């Protein structure tokens, strides 16, 4: 019982830190974010912060775990079509819906973070955001003549490049177009050329 209450308190502390990082990125941007600000906003000590994270960069990169969790728990179970194109369009739609949960300025900061703090964890093929695509391409390669000789990791990279490019364009246009509709249209054009 004591261990359970300690675990709940630890989860609340980490959640407070994570929520503060998200809020403060929106308010000040990544470059101006400090550990002192995070601790003050989260109402935790620096010791508590360092219990969970080595530095500010690690706390910011934690944001990427949320998209992986979303893809593993929400997206993957819904990619059940016997048609690769349908699964890929649905994947892209889920990606766009995830992006739209946040405001444009926050998403811009996350893109900056991806560029500034890029590491092997972000681009790992073991991340659900990649693994789900790789598994989809592997599952359908044998039944698709155009894909038989293609590497599934390369296909997943290419598909994510298209999705990220659409998202990036939406961000530089300050969200001035319908991300879901435009994304779906462009993904279908890409798939018509691929499949």
UniProtKB/TrEMBL annotation:
Residues 34-53 bind DNA. Pfam families: TetR_N. This is Transcriptional regulator, TetR family. GO terms for molecular function: DNA binding. Residues 11-71 form the HTH tetR-type domain. Coiled coil: none annotated. Transmembrane segments: none annotated. Keywords: DNA-binding. The keyword Metal-binding does not apply.
